Amino acid sequence: MTPHNRQNILLSTTRGWNPGDDWIRMGILRLLGNANSRFQTNPILFNRHPNIWGKGADNSYKIDHVNYKDEEGGERRRHSIQNIDYFISAGTPEWDSKGLHPLYRDLLEANVRCSFIGIGQGTPPSEPLTQLLADHTDVVICRDDNALGNVQPVFPGAEVLPCPAFLLPVTQWIRQQAKRLGLVYMSDRTGANRITPKSKPGLIHLFQRMLKAWPESMVICHYVDEALEAREHFPGAEIFYSYDPAHYEWAYAQVDVTVGHRLHGAILGAGTGAPAVLLLDQGKENGRRQAGAKPFGFYCLEDSNPASIMQCVENLQIQSESQRLVRFQGEVVAHYQRLLQPMVEVIDPRPAPAPPPPPDAPPSLGIDPLAI
């Protein structure tokens, strides 16, 4: 590896499917590209978006939208994996799926070093992932105890830290009161990541009541299906949606508290300093939500009792909770930087530069990215 060139970093994640996956990837790239970084990267995407990624171990796999292995298994473009300097599995529960085994075998064959950052849930790994973890991996950071239990027998040095999406926001500020809520709407009609039909009417009713009690609130939608529905259910309310996940950091920085079922909405908001009330429905995602929420101290409430949810928001110690989250993000960034040192030293063995001086003014909330 030539340390003076930009390093080709292959990231296994999704793009354009679940915004939470995008925020995990973007949080990891922020860690790699911050002012203390000693190298520059070319982030190359192994995009596991279900609509473009073939299912099953025998299917061709893709770097973003471009095959680097022929459909017939030929060698015409197989050399491309040789030009990958490092591999990062960037979160999501599918880090151990069988569909990734062809990629893992090629990484082993090409002797590419790896790290697994922000991985969650999953199942006990099998070959070839076990060999990749045991012999070619520098760092494993899990975002919940379930993933840690699965991976630690193969990689004993694995640790648990909060989800990297928490590290994405560069704008933090201390909230003083719950004046403007971020009501994160979730539908039962999206292709994935949806609430149960039983919970949907209650959520609509809850948000309608909250919009009356906190009229400056914003309804935040992660999927276009939700944005179109939200206009019908919440007429006159401000509704935020964008196809570009990068725009959501601005939206979550505008609100004082987030309320909703979406774990990564709560995490992104917390990264800006906004406390969260995470709602639980009767679906299978509750265990994952609660496991992911644990490091942040979110309030987790059943969505079936609107009065208790509204009372929880009213009783929040907004300022102290916001201060705690801002401090916590700084601590988590420092902890990640320490744990990632073995990976950084493999990618570029040069001495790290001195850190820059601290800023002399607080950050601005910025401009609405969708303002025209």
Tell me, briefly, the overall form. Answer: globular
What is the CA-CA span between the terminal residues? 45 Å
Main sheet specs: 6 strands, parallel
Output the helix-strand order: EHEEEEHEHEHEEHEHEHEHEHEHHH
Instruction: Tell me the β content.
Output: 15-25%
Gyration radius, in Å: 21 Å
Q: Structural class of the secondary structure composition?
A: alpha/beta
Instruction: Enumerate the spans where pLDDT stays under 50 for 5 or more consecutive residues.
Output: 56-60, 65-79
Helix content: 25-40%
The total of helices stands at 12
If you had to describe this structure to a student in words, what would you say it looks like?
- By secondary structure, the chain is of the alpha/beta class.
- It is 34% helix and 17% strand.
- The protein has helices spanning 19-33, 101-110, 129-136, 145-151, 200-213, 224-233, 248-253, 263-272, 286-293, 306-315, 318-339, 341-347, and strands spanning 7-13, 41-47, 62-63, 66-67, 86-92, 114-119, 137-142, 159-160, 181-185, 218-221, 238-240, 257-260, 276-280, 299-302.
- The strands form three sheets. Strands 2-1-5-6-7-8 form a six-stranded parallel sheet, sandwiched between helices. A six-stranded parallel sheet has the order 11-10-9-12-13-14, with helices on both faces.
- Helix 2 runs parallel beside helix 3.
- The longest helix is centred in the C-terminal third of the chain and has 22 residues, at 318-339.
- It is globular, with a radius of gyration of 21 Å.
- The N and C termini lie far apart (45 Å).
